[in-house]
Design a protein that fits this description.
Cys_alpha_HP_mot_SF; mainly alpha; IMS import disulfide relay-system CHCH-CHCH-like Cx9C domain-containing protein; CX9C; two-stranded antiparallel sheet; elongated; single chain; 4 helices
C-alpha cells in the first residue's frame, strides 16, 4: 500500500532503499535550527558540515537520469 499526498500516489517501498548520503548532517542542522529558534549564526558548524557533504556528492557518483526532455516525453506517452 502507498500513501496519497494530494493527488500524488507515493509507494514507500520503492524509495525505502535509496541511498541518503547527507541525511545525518541535514538532521543535525535542522535540529540545531529548531532548538535555536532560527538563529543561523548559532548553527554555523552544522551548516558548514552539511554544505561540505553536499558538495562532496559530485555528479560522477550519481547515476545520470538523461535529459529532461526525454523524461517529459516518456511521461506524456503514458497519459495518451
Amino acid at each position: 500500500m502507498g500513501r496519497k499526498a494530494g493527488g500524488l500516489f507515493i509507494n514507500p517501498k520503492r524509495f525505502g532503499t535509496l541511498h541518503k548520503p547527507c541525511m545525518k548532517e541535514m538532521i543535525m542542522f535542522l535540529n540545531c535550527v529548531a532548538t535555536t529558534h532560527d538563529n543561523a549564526e548559532a548553527c554555523a558548524r552544522q551548516k558548514e558540515l552539511l554544505n561540505t557533504c553536499m558538495e562532496s556528492q559530485s555528479k560522477k557518483n550519481r547515476k545520470s537520469w538523461g535529459s529532461l526532455n526525454y523524461h517529459l516525453q516518456r511521461l506524456s506517452r503514458g497519459r495518451k
